[in-house]
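User: Can you predict the 3D structure for this chain?
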Amino acid sequence: MDYSQTILQISLLIDAGLVVLIWMVQLIIYPSFTYYKIENLIKWHQKYTTGIAVIVIPLMLSQLIIAVIDVFLNFSWLSAATLSLVLFLWVFTFLNFAPLHLKITTGEVTRELLLRLIRLNWIRTFFWSLLFIFHIMIYISF
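Assistant: Here is the predicted structure, written as structure tokens:
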């Protein structure tokens, strides 16, 4: 097994974790926010963000680190595309989701905000799924 295949296998594991997580968030967690009374959502949201961060931060950091390492040690259009997609997901997450979650934390919750959270998350769901499928296709071609 060469370096490229090892990196790809690690990427697949990380991608799989993020895909399962993002689909759970999209289909279960974010929609459930619309069923809470605002005061209960604010209380729950603090626990949710703390708990989900323990899972999301290591996965996203690992994905970024692997993508950067792969670009530097094995530059190709595939590694550049992967890094570009990972960087897009980071920027998109921090520019869009951090402010929305901050509004929930500070009590600025509206139904429109929660629906925006769900709508925007489809973009992350699509791109994390795409990245996973992309890596599966590359792995199968090895």
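The chain has one domain: 3-141. The radius of gyration is 17 Å.
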